[in-house]
## 1
Amino acid sequence: KVHVDQVDTDKPGLLLADVGQGRMAYLPWDVGGLYYRHSSDAHRALVADLINHLLPGGRQLRTNAHPLVEIAVMRQPARGRTLVHFINLSGHSQTAYFEPLPLRAIEVELAGRYRSARSAKLEKALPLTPSAGAVKFTLPVLAGYDVVILE
């Protein structure tokens, strides 16, 4: 937030440190609380940038999906597959839920090597493109929910 009485101080807004074999980020202020109250994209972007900075191999998943699409990755090693769940939250409005808006051409890049991808909802195979230790695929349309099965 910006205030007219803002003054510079010697108090840090972010501390970064190497700890053992890892790295640490410490925000000595409640960025989560501010995001919850104000939904500022700058607060979301700050946390996203910190996550990108701290992950040694970068993000596991990259996408162009709208922010109201929740994506969860679930590995099932015993079955030799990975599930990528897509939940379209565009119909959610406070305490009500309406039919979600269909979202199209959701591009996903997921770390790992896979030979096939299939949309359970659309009941069709999705083309895979290899990309430097990852694969890329596009979910053509998302209504309320879908899961892409990667093997």
## 2
Amino acid sequence: MSNPPTDLAHPFDQALALEPLGDHRWQGHTSPAYANMVGPFGGLTAAQALAGVLRHSECLGDPVALTVNFAAALASGPFEVIARPARTNRSTQHWVVEMQQSGQTVLTATVVTAVRRQTWSADALPMPKVPAPNDTPRTFREAPVEWIKRYEMRFLEGHFPTAWDGREGGSRTRLWLRDDPPRGIDFASLAALADVFYPLIWQRRALRVPIGTVSMTTYFHATAAELAAVAGGFILGEARASAFRNGYFDQTAHLWSEAGALLASTHQLVYYKE
């Protein structure tokens, strides 16, 4: 079972608090510190679902894959996480996760955990050559929603449009990011960081259309020890979109440590409305 570093004074750890209810069930509560335009920040919700697995007494190894499907936005208040191991093999474990609120399903998820063994390893996708975090100005001091204030963001490319005039632009963004205040990184916080990228349709079209993530998969490439070595340092994130079509677009992202190690890759499908 993973034992992530926690500091209950940190807003992320407060938001991640889960009370065991027995029978594979946990009770959590939405956090005003991570409020979004509608419901909470999706990255936090994904992290809360993952936490139900990581804190389970039967958890084997560390997460290697997390897929979350957002059925509905959470309302402010309590919720339950049901995390059940569907199959356990010698070195891998498959989990089925559901999040419920007021008796209704708001999220479904699957998690694969594994006991990693040391083997030949290499990163096939090198980190882009970019200015260092200290050479990149912080982007946000004030933010329109609370959850953005929980992260320090330093954009290198693909910032928010300066004018919402419908002018078409690129479909890639790059930025340095970390928790604010800084916090030691673990699998739960990495799952949340994988969702900090703003909807790339806003950059592509410079129109603030309504959006919502439908499904997101994150693959964890780093071990717990490699994440611990990152400590409270910056993460380089790069996200790009492949296609915008008939109300949905995809968004692929990668996260590297300052040392250049690829920590995670993620892919999500996002709904948008004209």
## 3
Amino acid sequence: MASLLRFATAGSVDDGKSTLIGRLLHDAKALHNDHVDAVAASSARRGQHAFDLALVTDGLRAEREQGITIDVAYRYAATPRRTFVIADTPGHAQYTRNMVTGVSTVDLVLLLVDARQGVTEQTRRHACVAATLGVSRLVLAVNKMDLVAWSEERFDEIAAELAQLTMPLGFVEVTPIPLSALEGDNVVDPSPDLAWYAGPTLLGYLEEVAVDRPAEASVGARLAVQWVIRPRPGEAGGRRYAGTLAAGQLRTGDEVVALPGGRATRVAAVEVGGEPADVAEAGAAVSVALVDDLDVGRGDLLAAAGARPALTSELDATVCWFGDRPLRAGDRLTVLHGSRLTRAIVTALVDRLDVSALERRP
């Protein structure tokens, strides 16, 4: 089975994010015929003679009228080598909260820069947000290279500026790729105008890049129970506990502990996608049966007994605050932890990250 890669686009307005995703899906033969027909009809209604690739992802009526991306548009695609979940996020500064939503669950961010404009304030903001949310890999797509005469010097200048910008942000890898989304150069197929470039095409990179989730690999099994499946009358077997395996692996016979109660038991059976499985990997939707009949409900956590998480009543956190009203010390909050709701009080605000200047301020 092809591995899954979740990635999001980011960058300033009109850098070509939607056009790039449209080009990628179109040239990779990942669009259904009815979708192609719908986009062609929409392009014609707007008086455009050419197929508008940006409309592949800009689905909201307001976006099609204004020609900008407001909401996060999700698309699903597959090649013989990999499957993709793509989040096309807005570029306008006032929609940064939407961009945070799109980036919060991805493995990689595809950051676009207009070759004519170079690195902008919004480029810095989006790189900072991606790093803050724990994204480890960043692809710098230097778009519209055809408008700067395929200049190697211009590409190197932008790549060097972004490398200096991202150095303190802690990315594992930053990969610059020159391309033209509108013309299709170096998106799926290599470009004859980029003879000086020896790296991969964008699709080639996305198909080969490693998907690593260090936080998941460093701990044992973590299954937040979202649903308790009770047997129907006359059905054999006991209760099963379903949810997404957030970290580690689960196998039949593994010793687990049910928190917050703390009782230990063993896994009697594992199902992935409704089918019996020898092992469940992190990220899978699973259900498990336990050897003992414990009082386990929604919001409880099944964790590896040999690597149980620490229990605490206080924590420090980096928060992306979406509220229109500022967050203040003393505020009472409801916290969603896994699938459990609990109450909390803000005791102190340590500092605030200025995502434009990349500086922490009081």
